[in-house]
Amino acid sequence: MQTQLIDKFGRPIEYLRLSVTDRCDLRCHYCMPRGFKDFETPEHWLSFEEIEQVVRVFGALGTRRIRLTGGEPLVRKGLPELAGRLAALPGIEDLSLSTNATRLARHAGALHNAGISRINVSLDTLRPERFKAITQGRLDKVIDGLMAARDAGFAPIKINMVIMKGENDDEAEDMVEFCLEHGFTLRFIETMPMGDTGRNATDHYLSLQTIKQRLQQRYELIPGVMPGGGPARYMQVAGTELRIGFITPLSQHFCDTCNRVRLSVDGTLYLCLGQENNYPLRPLLRAGISDTELQQHIIQAIDLKPEKHDFNDKPGQIVRFMSMTGG
Ligand code: SF4
What we know:
Blueprint: E1 15-19, H1 48-60, E2 65-69, H2 79-87, E3 94-99, H3 104-114, E4 118-122, H4 128-135, H5 139-152, E5 157-162, H6 172-182, E6 185-189, H7 195-201, H8 208-216, E7 221-223, E8 233-237, E9 243-247, E10 260-263, E11 268-270, E12 278-280, H9 282-286, H10 291-302
Parallel strand pairs: 1-2, 1-10, 2-3, 3-4, 4-5, 5-6, 6-9
Antiparallel strand pairs: 7-8, 8-9, 10-11, 11-12
Helix pairs in contact: 1-10, 2-3, 3-5
Bound molecules: iron/sulfur cluster.
């Protein structure tokens, strides 16, 4: 019986990103359009039982890492309960969360007790007025959430900053100082042409090679490593614990070592963030499929995984927004 998912390019698939909702309480302009209302209907959301079955089968097929994402995952009611059920499944070694932290102050303790060990928080600026301009939200709620997460014992806490030329790229050094002060890990992310919103954001595209060179004028950056299965290439600030990750899908992609697939809230398995290849699992789950049968479908699905994205060559290709599959 197969116990490891390997795609046709020889890449082991050991990381499942689970979007538990396509809804969010923010409207980051590079992700979800203002006033967007065309969300997935709740009847199509996978139930906790269905999510648990999918993760159980992925676990049996060697998937070790599960990341809860959205939209904003804390918008989905009962997330700590779901986390507890997933953390208890055989084979799942690493359960993490990506969040905008606006609701983290209320849920940090319960999430940590449920078995989530690491979190990534989206934070593109430290200026309240600029935060409002980018997200339509309040910065103070995010900062409160971050501090509550640190007090709850999450480690590491990673900050994800999407760099946008002429909008927040002047704050890269400030964000480094913020992470140094609070013991967070920092990751810079390039904009990606996901949906019209993403394409508009690529008007502000800035290669992170530029940011890296700028930071090297102020900090001694040494190649570093960081546990976790993500695509970031890390540098360490000499003499400190701070690691800075560079996520560069456009200027230096990382598809050769891709180890992940994504499940959307309606049970569609997306094989690549930058392609439309997908495999609907909900009809199978609603038909009462067994774990053994589901294994065969997931093995077939992984065969559909494309080699890489075409963000540079075909920037207009991906219609769906980032919020539909969670970064
Ligand atoms: S773009 Fe696709 S192949 Fe490349 S790293 Fe992302 S998911 Fe993997």
